[in-house]
């Protein structure tokens, strides 16, 4: 079975949430495709979980995933993709034991619906998850191919995670939230790194400044490896984020 795409009225793609359905049962996928498309969502069905690992997922707003699938079950799939996706993930499963539900939530699932399920209940859960994201106004900053998710505390470039450390991310977030503004190294240290747990938290300004420079150098190296360089050095002043 090939991957299937469907959605609401032609021409409204920009306004419809994108839902990825991962299930190898054609009866389930047909049911979900019909119901969710009727609700106006852009639906993509993938019948083999291994395909999802190599897919571009940055534009997906919600994932519905079966647990018991051949080759790679839903738990293994979630473990493989959770680091690079921040959208809600809802499991659909015939497994009724409590341990499976606990495992799913531990891996980062947002909901766990047991089969057989009522389609009205599932549609309500999908609406609720998408509505929560909309009300929350998930804090995202976009700079060309670079996306900064302030809630997940991640930076992605064309969907690829930059894998910044916490200190590197905090510095980038400070600069990116105020693009064009130059920050002196000590301002960055005081805003992002001044804690007893950070190696820069000592008595000398020179050590704090050096720590900021090291973190920034590492962050820039990782971002440059992904093809972007948004941090500019302003000599004798500090650093700024170039929008």
Automatic annotation (TrEMBL):
What the entry lists under PANTHER family is as follows: REGULATOR OF RPOS, RESPONSE REGULATOR SAER
Lineage start: Bacteria, Bacillati, Actinomycetota, Actinomycetes, Bifidobacteriales
Q: What is this protein called?
A: Two component transcriptional regulator
Q: Which CDD domains match?
A: REC_OmpR (cd17574), trans_reg_C (cd00383)
* Residues of the Response regulatory domain: 18-130
Start-end of DNA-binding region? 138-243
Any one Gene Ontology molecular-function term assigned to this protein's record: transcription cis-regulatory region binding
Q: Which UniProt keywords apply?
A: DNA-binding, Phosphoprotein
PROSITE patterns xref list: OMPR_PHOB, RESPONSE_REGULATORY
User: Ranges for the OmpR/PhoB-type domain?
Assistant: 138-243
Q: Which SUPFAM superfamilies match?
A: CheY-like
The Gene Ontology biological process terms listed for this entry are: regulation of DNA-templated transcription
Gene Ontology CC entries for this record: cytosol; protein-DNA complex
- Record-listed 4-aspartylphosphate modification sites: 66
